[in-house]
Amino acid sequence: MQFSRSLKGNRQFRRLYQKGQSVSDRNLVLYCRPNGSRENYLGLTVSAKLGHAVVRNQLRRRLRECYRLHESEFRQGYNLVIVARGHAVNANYAELEKSLLKLAARQSLLREGQEYA
Q1: What radius of gyration do the chain's Cα atoms show?
Q2: pTM score, two decimals?
């Protein structure tokens, strides 16, 4: 990822859950909060309730790839956490991609001229 780093600390995740803004749909929940830097920090959360390790890792890889391919369309300077919901396990890549971009548009995280329904 060119403009982003990983969000790793438990404290960072908790702060974003408490003080960040969130939007959701049936597949994902997207939390965001400005961080005051020129980079985005991305965290992914997939609960053990969604399946065993193979299922969770596949879902994480698909979400990371969705973000990576559209990274240049996102505004810079935000902490982002993407939380997978139960329907995400059965969703194909195109559905996850559409879901992520729709949520990002609702949070005004996409650069000018980027519109997704």
Answers
A1: 13
A2: 0.91
Tokens of 17: 């859950």
Distance CA 51, CA 22 (A): 24
pLDDT tens track for 33-75:
999 899 999 999 999 999 999 999 999 999 999 999 999 999 9
Domain ranges (residues) in the chain: 4-104
Tokens read off for 114: 């980027």
4, 39 Cβ separation under 8 angstroms: yes
The CATH architecture annotation of domain 4-104 reads 2-Layer Sandwich (3.30)
Contact assessment for residue 66 and residue 36, using Cβ atoms and an 8 Å cutoff: no
Opening angle at CA 17, ends 93 and 94, nearest 5: 10
